[in-house]
Amino acid sequence: MISIEEFRKLAMSFPDATEEPHFEKTSFRSKKKIFATFDEKNNRAVLKLNEIDQSVFCASSEKIFYPIPNKWGAQGWTIVELSRVRPEMFEDALIRSYENVATKKK
């Protein structure tokens, strides 16, 4: 299980990461682009993965990682059930999400 404190510590460890509100959620950003959100009410994260990473994480456990069930999911936005995910797996997914957003060319 990942707590908001652990989530925050990991997300804020990246260069140029910022924490900002995003509607009723907390977002973590790189250069104003969201790479993760935390939904405290439902104890879920949403990460921005590329197509390959999304398919790998979702295939590893459909009850922990799954695409948002709309067009956002088709763009890589992936829900993570924080009460079920192993810390090392979450850290790996968060790193990939950050790298996907922070290194994307304009």
UniProtKB/TrEMBL annotation:
* Keywords from the named record: DNA-binding
- Taxonomic source organism: Flavobacterium chungangensis
Q: Name one Pfam family in it.
A: YjbR
Which superkingdom is the protein from?
Bacteria
Which InterPro entries does the protein's record reference?
Answer: YjbR-like_sf, YjbR/MT2646/Rv2570-like
| Name of the protein | MmcQ/YjbR family DNA-binding protein
Molecular function terms in GO for this entry?
A: DNA binding
